[in-house]
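$ run holo --ligand "1-O-alpha-D-glucopyranosyl-D-fructose" --emit tokens
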Amino acid sequence: MPRPWWEDAVFYQIYPRSFRDSNGDGIGDLAGITEKLDYLAWLGVDALWISPFFPSPMKDFGYDVADYRGVDPMFGSLDDFERLAAGAKARGIRIVLDLVANHSSDQHPWFVEARSSRLSPKHSWYLWTQDTGKPPNNWKAIFELGSAWFPNPATGERYLGTFTRWQPEFDWRNPEVRRAFYDIMRFWYGLGVDGFRLDVATAYLKDARLRSNPFSWRANPDFFQKHLYDRNQPGVHEIFAEMRKVADEAPGVGRRPSLPGERVLIGETHGQDAELAASCHGKRADELHMAFNFDFLNQRWKAKAFKTSAERWYSLMPIGAWPNFTLSNHDRPRHIWRYRARDPETTESRAKVAAAMLLTLRGTPFLYYGEEIGMGCFRLPRKALRDPLGVKTWPLGYLGRDSERTPMQWDSTPGAGFGSEEPWLPLNPDWRERSASAQRGRSSSLLEWYRALIALRRAVPALRGGSLRWTPASRDVLAFERADEAAGERVAVFLNFASRAGHAALAEEAAVLLGSARKEGRALAAGDCALGPNEVLIARLKPPLKPRPEPRQL
Ligand code: TEU
Ligand code: CA
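-- output --
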């Protein structure tokens, strides 16, 4: 069986408000993404995950959807989407949408109807409890830092909103809700969409008895609760299996449908632990194709930490499931900022090590727009904050989520080529020095480094589907071998996380494929290999003279 496309793909997440503004109104849009397809093709990415662009009151910047089948006018129209999809397809780039199915906007006509009367047909699509003057349990709205139960005087009830009061939660036990969402998925498949990233997929179901969560010492992001009852209910697997069936079987109905069996489902877990994420694949790998493992992006800048996390992730994968890795997204401070050193040069070198790790580990990499040019984070002035969480938690040490959502820095003209005189969020102050155009063609730049890594991954099958075996190295070096036994190809990867020299062992003579300090093609002797500070070395091993024992399959 050929490998499914998403196992070989490099994904690139676009936060549409911030990618490219085609009409100068301050907000990025779909036509803006279409304008940048050539850039994305040049960079070499295979698939886009586009954060929500559906009609929305934007209380949570699109993660509060008021119509699941449309495009918010600020982002364009369905025609713009179809143009984007066609342009992407012409360049061999797939498109994955962000389905926010745990909750809708309170402005969605379904909720407007549901809250009007207990007798309304949509009432049972959402979660309610009798309003006795106090909430029925201790569940929290995480962006409000208060109870998740909001009064609805018209019916004398409270509804559930785990994020904000503007994001009422569906009752996924209701088969009508399920059917409605499966139809929405079919609708987009018909328009050529290749899959979905499923927002907080593990939160669809809540405890039927609405029990209170027990106490936990973890403040961030758990708000001192062990989330036993407000998310992560076992019944969610049945929903995942149903979604998988729809993806695998539904014919497309539109003009340019994606193909059943070629659609991918990627779950966002609501929770940080790898076990929960791994469980989304299903025991027989018949549920979601992939799920994000946030444990990996929580690691400190230590080779050992990433090794342990990746190892654990691999060992949790059910047979037939495929791992993935990510370091940044629209909810977390960017990793170049999280892993910054005192001097900018080391920070830049670490970003190169991080990129090489993402793009050579066994598993599908997910990049976040701007990471390829090393966009960082900074503290926005209070009046510039937009994210409801950032506004609520100001001025705590936490940056909020605006800082990782600032406009993409395309060039060094005023406005950084984003397209607006007054973008919805301020530009990162480093925009003049750090832009795509300044880095394009400069061989030592981070952008060209990402491009070279992506091209290498595409050219060398062992880096995509090959097995992974950790190899001996000094403490700060992450060293592993990727092997494609069928093709007789083996690649050694050495990543020095430290700003001092390190060592790794080369099993055979090798030739450099890509290195931060060595030229491609240079020969390397077998045995001990000395590495410079923060050095990345990726080398092709000479075929062994005698057959070696099978490497441990992960
Ligand atoms: O996020 C789920 C979520 O709760 C976290 O990622 C959260 O944003 C983070 O822990 C804050 O520290 C998803 C979306 O990715 C996010 O943008 C939405 O705001 C949220 O769901 C609600 O739809
Ligand atoms: Ca615009």
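-- notes --
Residues 27 and 91 are 25 Å apart (CA to CA).
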